[in-house]
Every structure is written in C-alpha cells, then in structure tokens.
Design brief:
Strand order of the largest sheet: 1-2
Shape: globular
Largest sheet: 2 strands, antiparallel
Length: about 500
C-alpha cells in the first residue's frame, strides 16, 4: 500500500486521525531517544539490561518514525475534536511503549505490572509494584525517574497550552484571567512551551546539584531531582527519602516539591521582570497557607501525643510529608500511618486538594477549591440577603459563569469517579479502607495511600491484577483532568 493510500485511509470519513497519528509518532520518537539514556548508563556499569533498553528504543522509534512518515505533510490543522482525542491517545501510547523496559528487563514484570508501573510514572503518581529498589538495576531506576520527569513537563505544557482551549474543568481560567493570559506572557504556544522547558530543566539541574552537595550520590541526586520537580515521588530506595538520614536533604526536597507545584507561567513572568504576580497570586498564597496550617496542626498533634520529642525533627517530618501528600509527590520520610487517626484524616483530605494549576502537581488544584469556595460563599450571602448582588471573585476579578459551571461539573465528576473507582476496587476483593485509599491515590495521582497494603510502608504488587488495571484507568483520568477522557465515551461527541 502506498503512502498516499495510507493517508487516504487515515483521513477517510468524518474524523481525520492523521494529525493525531503525526503527533503521537513524534512523541514516540522522543520517548525512544530517552530510552537510550538508561541503556548507556547500564552499559557503563556493565548491566545486561542495556540490551533491553536499546531494543525498546529501536522498537519505539520504529513505530514513531513510521507513524510520522505516514502522515507527514498531510496532517493539516488540528481541530478541537481531534485535540480531545489527541490528549488521551498520547498518554496511552507513551505508557504502552514506556512499559517495554519493565516487561523485558531482568525483573520480568507481568504485562499488568509493567503497564501499571509505566502509567504511574508518566502520570507522576508514584505508586509502585517494584520491591527491592535498593538492588534494582540502575537503568530501570533511571527509567522510572525519566518517565516521571517527562510526564511532569508534559502535563505542564498541556495544562497551559491545550486544556484552556478545550475548556476542561475550569482550565479556561488560564485564558480568562489566572496568568494574565498566556498570549500576553509570550506570543505563541511554542514560545510558552519552550520557556516552560527552560525553567523546568533549570529547576531540575539546581535540585540535582543541591542534593549532591547535601550528601546524595550523583546517581541518587539526579533521580530524586527529576522526580521531585515532577512531583512524581519515585525513589531509588525502598524507604523512599527516609533512607537518607539528612535534615538538609529533606528540606531541599521539600523546597523542590513546592517549586514544582507553583504555576510555571508565573515563573516566566518573574524572569521577565514581573515578580509581583508570583507573590500576589491568591492561588499561591492559599497553597502556602494550607501547608503552614496543616504543618502546624500536625506538629501540635504529635507534640501532644508524644511530649518531649524533638521539635525540629517533628517539624521537618511534618512539613515534608504534608507537602509530599498535598503536591501529590508521594515521598515519605517515615510511616505517617503510625502518627494516629488525626494525621490519617488530614493526609486523606490533602490528597484531594493538590497543588496549583499550571504546575506538575495533581488533585483538584487550589484554584478549583477557591472557585468552589467563592461560589458557595456567594450563594450563602444571597440566601441571607435575597435582593443583594454578590459576585464570586477569584484573584480579585469576577469569575465568569462558564468557568464556575465547569469547575462545579469537574468537582462532581471527580467525586463521582472516586466513588465509582472505590466501589469497583472493593469488587476486586480489597477491604473498604484499602479501596478508598487506593481510589484516592489513583484519581489524585498521589502515590502511596493509607493502610498497611498501599500506605507509605506498603507496595502495590500484592493487589489483584483487576485492581491494578482499574487504578491505571484512575491515574489516567486524574492526570488528564477527567473531561478529556470521559468525553470520548459520549456518543454525542462522535456524532458532532
């Protein structure tokens, strides 16, 4: 079959998939090139898995190049409908090919476990089925970190460039007000994405240097820098960051998680001489406020429960784990399940909130919580003063009705998906606490949950395969803002 006939086939009918195939192909080539890094590292340390990575890179690049060449020069401009299909298609394709090294490495993970690990990596969730990380081949450890790093920058670019156009769950606030519109920051989406990449890489390099200087090995520093800025949470040790008995390392990673959870567009504005939006943005202020309040509550609770414990140690452990759970990173310095029921409830609540929009963070996002609170407060005032005019505001500006409607819709879908996922997980045999925790950590892309099985001291390997596939779907839904996946299930979408 000729290239022309292939193009015609791809473009037949009411829906032209050529632009989608082209973009997916280009990104698969990028993923294939990234596989060469762990291949080179494994080869340098004489680990035989370098052959696995090289073969995976060849296969991935072959499919990517084939898809790109098949559609090159005939894709045309992408429509809104195609963009909706593109977003989940890209993630599923990258996850599928990203699982190849896990599948064929010396670990020989099952298809289910390999897909789960890859999905958890690219969505920056951080849940893992691999035990014995301390003795895991270095190439695989590096690959896990690279997946999260690539997923982190991917979600930022998507959040500020694609989702506002799709008007997904209130993300159009980026177009309306939140960042003085991306168009005013930089003239094009390509320029915006390029600047975000520069900031993202710079933060990663600085974090790696700081961790190395604080006592980490070069390899551990690189890996933790990538997963910190990506708020992913994959570590090179079974004990996570708790394996590094250094207060300085804990504080550096805490700062890195916070930096990764703030809006990257605001960083760009600050570098262009407009630092005030970063300091005055109510989303940033609320995010920092939640960290301070939750940390203070956790320290107070622990001091009351265990009088005489070292204050600095409790403060460091509290702020680290609060930031880790709130940002959806999923690192742990110790088993916070042992802190008591109050701590469990606080962490369970923080899982859902997440960090700021336009960052690598996850969950509901701070600005959505603010919009919901503003709309609810306005409604309460109207109940007290029926004839009054109360306009909900965000960042001192009125919230458009379409934004508040989409945020409320997103919130409803978020809770509905969480409840449905938890119910389905119980159907696979999980107990209610584990099911609720696993559903929360999946849909909010947090990583570790609560309880002995999926908590900070547990591992997801023991879960039934059906539960892992359900959680993989939950991770994808949570990372892609629900609407971009669920809309594909609507017959109306395909008839439009």
């Amino acid at each position: 079959m000729t290239a022309a006939s292939n193009n015609n086939t791809l473009g037949v009918g009411l829906f032209d998939i050529r632009p989608i195939v082209l973009v997916v192909g280009i990104l698969l080539v990028t993923l294939g090139i990234a596989m060469l890094l762990p291949a080179l590292y494994d080869a340098a340390v004489s680990n035989p898995d370098w052959k696995v990575f090289l073969a995976s890179a060849v296969v991935t690049s072959f499919f990517g190049v084939s898809m790109a060449l098949m559609t090159w020069g005939s894709a045309g401009t992408m429509t809104l409908k195609q963009a909706f299909v593109l977003v989940p298609a890209v993630w599923v394709a990258l996850v599928t090919f990203g699982a190849l090294p896990f599948l064929f490495s010396e670990l020989q993970l099952s298809i289910t476990d390999a897909f789960f690990e890859s999905m958890s990596g690219i969505t920056t969730t951080g849940s893992t089925v691999i035990s014995g990380l301390d003795t895991t081949p270095p190439g695989l450890l590096l690959w896990r970190s690279l997946l999260q790093w690539l997923g982190g920058i991917g979600i930022i670019v998507m959040a500020v460039s694609i989702l506002p156009i799709l008007q997904v769950g209130g993300m159009q606030m980026f177009k309306v007000e939140a960042f003085d519109t991306p168009e005013k920051v930089l003239p094009s989406a390509a320029a915006l994405a390029g600047s975000i990449t520069v900031v993202y890489v710079s933060f990663t390099v600085l974090a790696a240097i700081a961790l190395w200087a604080a006592g980490m090995s070069f390899f551990d520093g690189i890996n933790h820098a990538m997963t910190t800025i990506a708020t992913g949470g994959y570590s090179t040790r079974d004990a996570s960051v708790g394996a590094f008995d250094s207060g300085l390392i804990h504080y550096i990673i805490t700062a890195g998680m916070i930096f990764g959870s703030l809006p990257f567009v605001l960083y760009i504005q600050a570098l262009r001489g407009k630092a005030s939006p970063l300091l005055r943005d109510t989303q940033v202020q609320t995010f920092i406020g939640i960290i301070l309040v939750a940390t203070a509550a956790m320290v107070t609770y622990q001091m009351l429960q265990q009088p005489g414990v070292d204050l600095e140690e409790r403060l460091r452990a509290s702020i680290f784990n609060v930031v880790s759970i709130l940002t959806g990173t999923g690192y742990a310095t110790e088993d916070y399940d042992s802190w008591g029921p109050f701590a469990s409830i606080v962490f369970f609540t923080l899982m859902f909130i997440g960090g700021c929009s336009g960052s690598t963070s996850c969950g509901l996002k701070i600005f959505r919580v603010q919009v919901i609170a503003a709309v609810a407060l306005s409604h309460l005032r109207r109940m007290i003063y029926p004839h009054g005019v109360f306009i909900p505001k965000y960042n001192r500006r009125a919230i458009p009705e379409n934004v508040s409607a989409s945020v409320m819709s997103f919130f409803f879908l978020f809770i509905a998906c969480f409840g449905t996922l938890a119910l389905l997980l119980t159907f696979t045999g999980l107990d209610p606490v584990t099911a609720l925790s696993a559903a929360a950590t999946s849909i909010a892309n947090v990583g570790p949950g609560l309880g002995a099985e999926v908590g900070p001291s547990g591992n997801f390997a023991g879960l039934p395969d059906a539960a892992k596939w359900l959680m993989s779907l939950g991770m994808l839904l949570g990372r892609l803002e629900l609407f971009t996946v669920l809309i594909l299930l609507s017959p109306v979408f395909w008839r439009s």
